[in-house]
Design goal:
alpha/beta, globular, Dihydrodipicolinate Reductase, domain 2, 6-stranded mixed β-sheet, 12 strands, 6-stranded parallel β-sheet
């Protein structure tokens, strides 16, 4: 199985190379091609360290590979290569943020579904075993509070680059059927978002340097707070399993609704 990378600047590109080419977790899988126009210097280092061929265009990577990984830091750059990969019939990992508009997320999802090309991606944090345990605590009447990092002034599409982690976790824990969203940014660039559902509520609190993922679930007098070990996430395993089976690990509505949720937060807070 030949994997192609599109994007070199993001640390996730190196992570995929470490797991697949260096650790050789799968003897029949190798990353062989990369297009790194987003950071040619980083691309050169990846090619040298991991034995990867530098391609002139993303089209060349797509044509030469059995499956494709898009790791651009800017989600606004994901849609065009994602559509090309899906049209070429190549299973796809589309990194976070999956897109920076609900319309683009829907376009990717609809094409993947129509052509039967499996796609996964977004934040790796939703794969954490602890989140599955926390999800079992959420029930009608619950208040869920998610605290994690995000910088509204990030050079990589602003709040989109990191806040998508919390938006996807919210959709995973509380569901995709949110009914309203309100948000504001304070003087210290912390953003507080109130996400309401028919029978539960989620508060997302982010600040630039809050690198610990902390989740609290309150059910009346019963409150559980967990500091989640984010090192346990395993996006590469999920991707390879998907390519082998041809089955996406979750419904595409997860990505569309998560992107829509973050878009409403960005709009409400004026980010």
């Amino acid at each position: 199985m030949t994997i192609g990378l599109i994007g070199a600047e993001n640390s996730h590109a190196r992570h995929f190379c470490e797991v697949i080419n260096k650790q050789k977790k799968w003897t029949d899988v190798q990353i062989k091609y990369i297009y790194g126009g987003d950071d040619p210097a980083a691309c050169g280092k990846l090619c040298e360290e991991y034995g990867i061929a530098d391609c002139a265009t993303d089209d060349e990577v797509i044509a030469k590979s059995d499956a494709v990984v898009i790791t651009y830091r800017r989600g606004s750059q994901h849609c065009a290569p994602a559509i090309k990969a899906i049209q070429a019939g190549k299973p796809l990992f589309n990194d976070k943020p999956f897109a920076t508009s609900a319309a683009e997320a829907q376009e990717i999802a609809a094409l993947a579904e129509r052509l039967g090309v499996p796609v996964t991606g977004g934040t790796s944090l939703k794969t954490l075993p602890e989140l599955a345990e926390i999800k079992r605590l959420v029930r009608p009447g619950s208040l869920v509070v998610i605290s994690y990092a995000a910088d509204p002034e990030s050079p990589y599409d602003g709040y989109w680059f990191y806040a998508i982690h919390s938006a996807e976790i919210c959709a995973f824990l509380c569901g995709e059927d949110f009914t309203s969203v309100g948000a504001f940014k304070n003087y210290a660039s912390a953003v507080i978002s109130n996400v309401t559902y028919a029978d539960r509520r989620c508060v997302i609190a982010t600040s630039k340097d809050s690198w610990e993922l902390v989740i609290t679930v309150s059910n009346g007098a019963e409150t559980v707070t967990r500091k989640v070990n984010i090192a346990a996430a395993s996006i590469v395993d999920e991707f390879i399993e998907m390519v082998r089976t041809g089955k996406p690990p979750r419904g595409y509505s997860h990505y569309v609704r998560s992107v829509e949720l973050l878009g409403k937060i960005v709009e409400s807070a004026g980010l």
